[in-house]
Amino acid sequence: MTLWRQPTYPAVHGKKRALLVGVSYRSKSYELMGSINDVNCMKYFLRERFRFPNDCILVLTEDESDPDRIPTKINMQAAMRWLVHDSRAGDSLVFHFSGHGSQRRDVMGDEIDGYDETLCPLDHETKGMLVDDEINNTIVRPLTTGVTLHAFIDACHSGTILDLPFVCRMDRAGFCEWEDHHRPQISYKGTSGGLAISFSGCDDNQTSVDTKALSGDTTTGAMTFSFIQAIESEAGVTYGRLLSKMRSVIRDAETGPRINGPITYLLQKVFRSGLTQRENSNWKYRNQSAQHEPQ
Length: 295
Known about the structure:
Blueprint: E1 16-22, H1 35-50, E2 57-60, H2 73-84, E3 92-98, E4 101-105, E5 115-119, H3 124-127, E6 130-131, H4 132-139, E7 148-154, E8 166-170, E9 176-180, E10 195-200, H5 222-233, H6 239-255, H7 262-271, E11 289-292
Parallel strand pairs: 1-2, 1-3, 3-7, 7-10
Antiparallel strand pairs: 4-5, 5-6, 8-9, 8-11, 10-11
Helix pairs in contact: 1-5, 1-7, 5-6
GO molecular function: cysteine-type endopeptidase activity
GO cellular component, one term: cytoplasm
Protein name: Metacaspase-2
């Protein structure tokens, strides 16, 4: 018999709340070297740039000493419920995941490409993956009027990981095209009046891994790095401009010297505290796509 108890997470207060999950899959053949770095960067960024209270940021990584904050499937499920619990008009919620993503055959018939997208918890080999349908039901559907969720998913096959009804794709020339992914005859995937926006590291049929190519000496996820760089370098940016700027960050790293400026300073601040992961030099970057639930 296995006993289970509900994890205890911070009491909800204030208008800002964030869940940051980084999974490195240590000692596995598919270990990632930059996922916890991504979480450390995002936490510092949310605190310093957007004034998120430290006790309103829940972090799940393998570095945590509290067993409830290890990124297992059951802890991720509980943490996602914590993120949206009792949210009200004016609340700003953030969900950030850096780790592996995958796909599986769609059995509900609500996916255009015939596949569900998934996130891989630390114990996904034994407990299974988190499927986009469950993620949508947990952190998108409960959003009521006036509540905003921003999700940042630095993982493979993550283009539609929140299963939102609309997808914005930006091509290499910077042109955006909206796609309607509604399947109302099967299931409703929108919010309950709130706003959900998701930035993903690549399309559903693409892969991405962590890299040193952007920072020069610290392994990070390309999406997380480019997002922070874009926000820090241009105040008051629109969503469209943000996507374009993120793409420019990646393109600059592919064709020229490594990035300097605000993100380099932030990395130095974060990792001066000894929070960095072990490094490697592998990287691949494909695409970003944003998902938006119009009001």
